[in-house]
Amino acid sequence: MKDAQHDCETVEMPSVPRRTLLGALCAGACATLLPFARAPGQARALPLKNLGLEHLDIVVPDPAESARFYKRVFSSPLHEQDFRGAKRYFVLLGRLPADRQVGYIAIGAANGRPITVGHYCALAETADIPAIGKELAAAGYPEPGGGFGMIPDPDGLELQLFKPPAGLVAAAVPSTLEVAKDGLFSPLGLEHVLLAVSDLERALRYYRFVYGEGLETRDAADPKRVWFNLARNTRIGLEPAAKSAMPRFVSFGIKVAPFDGATAAAGLKAAGGEVLSVAPSLIRFRDNYGITLEARAAP
Question: Angle formed by the axes of helices 261-271 and 63-73, to 10°?
C-alpha cells in the first residue's frame, strides 16, 4: 500500500525564469476569461438560432382542477401523462398533427412549491446542451442542470431548450378527465412570457448572450419593460422586479383566433377567472389559481 507520508513530502521544484512564470500566469488568467476552446471551424453554440417559443408549464396544487379551468377557456384538446405518481395535463395550443409538433400549456403538481409558471420552452436549430453549458460557464453564467434541457438564467428562471422535432411528448394521450368541450378561445400558439428580474441590465446582457443582439424593443406603455422578439412572432419580456420582490414569471400570452371581448370577459368570470382588462383583440385575466395570462387575437 502506498505510504501516505510520501504523498505529503515536499518536492523541490526547479527554478523558473520570472518572465516565463509571469507569461504562464497571464495565459492561465486569460483562459478563464475567454470562452472554451473550440476546434477549428467549430461553430459557437450561442447565441441560439431560435425558432420561437413552443410551450410552458405551470405548477398548481390540483392539476385536474386547473385543467378543467383551462378547458373552459381554450377549445383545443386536452392530453394527460402519468408522471411521478400523478397526472400531468397538456392543454394543446392547436390541433394535434401526426408529427405531434404543437405547443401546449403543461399543468403539473406543485407538491409544496409556489403556484407559478415553472419554465418556458424555446426551440432552436441546434440545441447542444453541453456546448451551451461550457459557453455559459465561461461567461460566468449558470450552467444547465437536470436531465430535461433546463437552462437557468441569473435569477434561476428556467428555459427548456429543444431542437425540432419536439412538440407533445409521446407518452401524453387524450385525457379521460371530464371537461368542457366548448372553450372561449381557439388557441394558435404561445405568444410571450414576461419575466420580472432582479437586475435588468444584467438580465439584458444575459439574454443578448443567449439569443443575440438586435432583437430588443422597449415597451411603448412601460419603457422599463424590454421585449426580445423571437421567431414565429413570439417574445420574451423582461422588467425589473418590484423592490423586495423575488424574480418570477409575471405572465404569459396565448395567440388565439379573433374573439368578442364582452362575450369572452363574461365567459371567463363564469369559469372562475378574474378579468383584469379588456381591449380590442386583447384580454388579460387571472386563472383559477391566480396565474396571469393574456389571450391576444392573431392579426
Answer: 160
List the CATH code of the domain at 50-297. 3.10.180.10
* 124-125-126 Cα angle (round to 5): 90
User: Which is it for strands 226-230 and 216-218: parallel, antiparallel or unpaired?
Assistant: antiparallel
pLDDT digits (tens, 9 = 90+) for 270-286: 999 999 999 999 999 99
User: Any idea where the domains of the chain sit in the sequence?
Assistant: 50-297
Mean pLDDT of 237-263: 97
Cell of 63: 392539476
Q: What's the pLDDT tens digit per position in 15-73?
A: 434 333 334 333 333 333 334 455 555 789 999 999 999 999 999 999 999 999 999 99
